[in-house]
Amino acid sequence: MQIVDNFIPEMEQDDFEQYVATSHFPYRLYNTHIYSDSESIMYEHAPMQLSHFLYESESDQASPHLPIITKFVKQLEKRYGKIKLLRAKVNLTFPYPPYMNYEHQTPHIDLQYDDGSPVDHKVLLYYINNTDGPTYFFNDKKEMSDTIYPKKGRAVIFDGSEIHAASNPVKNPFRFILNVDFKVL
To answer: CATH homologous superfamily of domain 2-20+52-184?
Structure first.
């Protein structure tokens, strides 16, 4: 796992935040990952969120807003060389009463095959605004192993097989995050 503060320059951070926080950038209600596991109740519920899907390789469709992540793709290519974009979206979450003590949402991996095995990929989580609501990581035994706190401009890059979960903000009115799934070629 890599944590990179100021993944893009500060002026670009402000521009990106303003872009995704305006009414011309549409969001849709998205049912978050719901997965039931008989071994643990932590997989049984999650609040809904608003999302804007910028790109999904499965459908090969792109939002007209996709160019706003060009700067992120370029930064990833500086680190990894050529990459293939698999999915990109902006998630927007709000305080949610059952989750007022930073309880995590549903632990998950972003991309998996029908049999549940993970797709070989990496994940970029980029915190768009200064907010609360940490991201949690879990080991193979489904025990919490790490906590990353949001900070505007911070990126977390990790292997796509790592189990992780967001949490809702408690003190702030919203939490914006860019989620990019990509494959290193």
So the answer is: q2cbj1_9rhob like domain (2.60.120.620)
